[in-house]
Specification:
single chain; mainly alpha; globular
């Protein structure tokens, strides 16, 4: 069944390379089967193939957070939010990062708010 799922994700991405939900599902499958480096390579290729797109950066940030690199995850979210200030998943991942991230991030006063309040660094402050 795992092989069938992976084949279907690959087929989906062959026909729709920027399908974010399919890309995320394949990344989850790769992580859960111990293929972290394969997941990273896949998502990094997506980032390279889609310059200027927020979805690949958000996926890479999620993946970096999952494999234990929260600072890289934060930087990726900043880049994604500069490209698309109201990107829902980027905002949700940022909120998760702030909530679960390093303690220093929780005491900086950084919060998620309206996109119109977005400063150049990609974070929303009040």
């Amino acid at each position: 069944k795992l092989t069938d799922a992976e084949l279907n994700y690959d087929y989906c991405l062959t026909s729709q390379p920027d399908h974010a939900k399919c890309r995320h599902a394949l990344a989850v499958l790769l992580l859960e089967t111990g293929r972290d480096q394969e997941a990273l390579a896949m998502v990094n290729r997506w980032v390279s193939e889609s310059p200027g797109a927020a979805d690949p950066l958000v996926e890479l940030s999620w993946l970096e957070k999952e494999i234990g690199d929260p600072e890289q995850a934060r930087e990726g979210l900043q880049k994604a939010l500069l490209l698309s200030p109201s990107h829902p998943r980027a905002l949700a991942e940022l909120a998760d990062w702030l909530w679960q991230g390093p303690p220093a991030a929780r005491v900086t006063g950084v919060t998620v708010g309206l996109a119109s309040e977005q400063p150049a660094d990609g974070f929303v402050t009040r």
